[in-house]
Amino acid sequence: MVRILVIHGPNLNLLGKREPEIYGTTTLADINRQLSELAKQYSVELDFIQSNHEGEIIDRIHTARESADGILINPGAYTHYSIAIRDALSAVSIPAVEVHLSNIHAREEFRKQSVVAPVVIGQISGFGEHSYALGLLALIEHLKRPGT
């Protein structure tokens, strides 16, 4: 069975309440539920983590070497400056997809830069809660490709 680690970064625990005009009214529990239902259709097992702490995210990426075939990550604000998370993703050599609820390229200048993007297989942003589902489907397709 394919196993995917889903990482939700800082402030995503506030989804549904935090700036709904940008991030929508869907909660993190709603997103996890939707992803779980989608994963079942593909016989994929998901493991979820949400953390506001960079070190905890890095530790979980490291342990994914032994427990996951892929990583679906929304690094939140760490997207723009966490070389440590970028390096952890690079070090474990597990296919990863970066997702964002908002279109980071259409927001403030500092949000347009992702230090994570160069070490993931792709980035999906701007589709609200659907960014996660699209990212999961892309990752599943990648993992089920022969030779991956």
From TrEMBL:
Residues bound to substrate:
N74, H80, D87, L101, S102, R111
GO terms classed as biological process = amino acid biosynthetic process; aromatic amino acid family biosynthetic process; chorismate biosynthetic process; quinate catabolic process
Catalytic center at which residues? Y23, H100
Any one Gene Ontology molecular-function term assigned to this protein's record: 3-dehydroquinate dehydratase activity
Q: Which family does it belong to?
A: Belongs to the type-II 3-dehydroquinase family.
Subunit: Homododecamer.
The protein's name is 3-dehydroquinate dehydratase
Q: What is the source species?
A: Effusibacillus lacus
Q: Which gene encodes it?
A: aroQ
